Amino acid sequence: MDKRATIYTYLKPRIPYMTLGVLMKFAGALAELLLPYLLSYMIDQVVPLGDRGRILLCGGLMLLAAVAAVTLNIAANRMASATSRDFTRSLRHDLFDRTMRLSSRQIDQFTIPSLIARLTTDSYNLHQTVNSMQRVGIRAPILLVGALTMSIVLDRSLALVMVAMLPVMACIIFFFSRRGIPLYRRQQEGVDALVRTVRENFTGVRVIKALSRGPHEARRFDAVNRELVRRETRASTTMAMSNPLMSMLLNLTLTAAIVYGAWRVNDGLSQAGVLLAFMSYFTTILNALMSITRVFTNLAKGIASGGRIMQVLNTPEDLLPQQQLPGGDPGAHIAFEHVSFAYQPGGRDQLEDLSFRLERGQTLGIIGATGSGKTTIISLLMRFYDPREGRILISGRDLRSIDPEELHRMFGVALQNDFLLASSIEDNIRFGREMTQAELELAARDAQAWEFIQALDDGLAHSLDTRGVNFSGGQKQRMLIARALAARPDILILDDASSALDYQTDAALRQAISRDYRGVTTIVVAQRVSSLAHADLILVMEHGRCIGKGTHEQLLQSCEIYAEIYASQMGEVPA
Fold first, then answer.
1. Which fold, 7-184+243-310?
2. What are the residues facing 538 on neighbouring strands?
3. How many CB atoms lie under 10 A from the CB of residue 421?
4. What pTM did the predictor assign?
5. So what CATH class is 334-570?
6. Rounded Cα–Cα distance for residues 296 and 132 (Å)
7. Average model confidence (pLDDT) for the chain?
């Protein structure tokens, strides 16, 4: 975003509409405040005269004022609901858009569960705050000030009883509001932890069942849930104390006003109609103050949630393209030059002094133990992260000088932990991109997915369940590879994407790629030597360092670890 976002940024375009709603609320409140005054006037001035015409006139005016108050308040409430709806829709849209543009490092800092909570719970809290501020937050102060003013007009002595209590009530509201904001912020952090735990359990539900860890996960969830309950209880209890305290003070004030008012009427210093109207205004003041207390409770939630949302919206772009960066050898399609990288600043390097080059159309194979840095190479190549040292070039251009949209259009990717949409097979392969039906079918054929797709009654229109659980692991991988191939990328990345395929299908996939995707630079991350043996360059990774680099034949002679992997998988000792 060009400017630092605030809540006002999203409310500003709606101020004219909100102003109209405020005016309607103001008019409705005035009509409501007029009712006790008309009642007092009729009891004290009209009824003693016995003039039925004037009595009916006053009654008609009261009826008209009541209808106007109800009509204007309903209309204003509808406008408030529309404003808060549009405000939240716009805010959520920008929050989702900004979330999708966060770098991987920024996502790691916020965490995915926290981002989910900000998009859902926090935006809902802000919606409720904006809605209640327009509906109650405007009406209650108008009624409070108006009722006090009318009370003073009717009887200054009685009004002083209420005015004396207002500073005490204001201090109570200020105290609880100040205490509530940090409590609700900690409550939302507890929601983040709960979302994270639930998300982990849903993602790994099959592993949990397979290892009979259900009771353990239930205890872990219970611990997180109890912590959230503790924080919610503390926040709710603290804020709930304001209601009975305010009620006690208001009722004591009301009792004092009744006793004092009755004494004044008995001594002829006031009139019964004035006392009756005063009681109505006091009830209005009582309800207004209670409403203001509830508004401040919602406001505390809204401020806490708004701060969390604005923290994401105002996070600066982390991977903006830079100009005037020196280029490199344009003959190399992909080049890593002394690249080092650590996920945590100051932490241990997950990649250390890595250098290699690939020409256009060549294939790179990467093999190594889990945690050796294979996927980290892919993440750096697609600029999910920037290296700590060194540089990465594509066609002689430093990655940091390429616009992210342009960069990502170069890739076709089937990642190690990829996902499938709960939609049709065609939608999953097409993935919102423009392509002909022939191109889509060719990608499915080359990915060795066309045979099982044709066997389905509805073919490409067949629907997948969430995460594709109604297909086998090999079928899912072939659909993901078809998605990567469908866009005819410049660079094809297969990050352990064929681990669930049998050797025959894997070999057919490699043949199809070499036949139909000439000129496409391919990067294959795999655990099988057979998936990499054809590669023009193979990197053997161990603890973030490249311990072997060359062709299959070269590595069999020069890299002991690669030769051991080959022997263990192929059942033969290399010559």
1. ABC transporter transmembrane region fold (1.20.1560)
2. 365, 550
3. 14
4. 0.75
5. alpha beta
6. 10
7. 85
